[in-house]
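ingest -> validate -> predict -> emit
validate: passed (alphabet ok, no gaps, 304 aa)
predict: started
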Amino acid sequence: MQLYLPIAEMPVDPFVVIAMGAAVGFLSGMFGVGGGFLMTPLLIFYGIPPAVAVGSETVQITASSVSGALGHIKRKTVDFQMGGFLVAGGAVGSAIGVFLFRAFLKTGQIETVISVSYVVFLGAIGGLMLTESVRTLFRSTDTKRPVRKRRSPAWLAALPFPMRFRTSGLYISPLSPIALGFLIGMIGAVMGVGGGFIMVPAMLYILNMPTNVVVGTSLFHIIFVTAITTLLHAAANQTVDIALGLLLVFGGVIGAQFGVRAGMKLKGEQLRALLALIVLAVCARLLIGLALPPASFFIVEGAQ
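emit:
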């Protein structure tokens, strides 16, 4: 059975797309990420044009994040105050990111920009997360060595207008989550991701938020920022294929609920280590794709 995608201009097997959406939705609920860091490369590997993969994936990220966030709201593991500041910065960042995406699309360099961005960000963040997780796991098995508490950077405490975030147990300036949300929103719009693979470690190691609150708050932020990004991509770049997005949503919403339940059974260190391995695996696959020569050096689209 084949389904024709009007914006991507190609037929796909809907059951394969739904299965991919379910798998990524499961990861979204488990790790507190939108899943775009995995879904966008999978769509590109499947043959979807990179620009359409980025624009359409934001539909699935929004839906799966809603499903996953609802599970965390029931467990009261969402810091709405922190999430509000993240969303404020993310809305502005996503608008600028869509503008940059359009500029790269016009120059014909968007595929290279997407692939290189994934390799750089996934490689760096995956490596840092894996290193920290392995160290934490080894320390937890060594009863003779005390585990040192993570400390926020000194510059974070020096920012003005500090306020108390009771759910997270923090007393910091709202400027830091606003800036973080802005950066994630801009990167997410260009790469077709919710930004959770950057947001989660940043909230853990920079903002110093507790692990149990990070996952739900990350999903809360992703809902609004990716919804804004979807609308902007559809209006400015015409790269959102609704048919493709709905197939991914159908699988993603179901998978996210199972992911939330699975994530509650694992320790924070185990979750971070597993996420790091998945991130590095996707990075390696993209790097191989960049290193291999193209199948064809010239593409003839037809006479004008």
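Strands lie at 3-5, 10-12, 163-165, 170-172.
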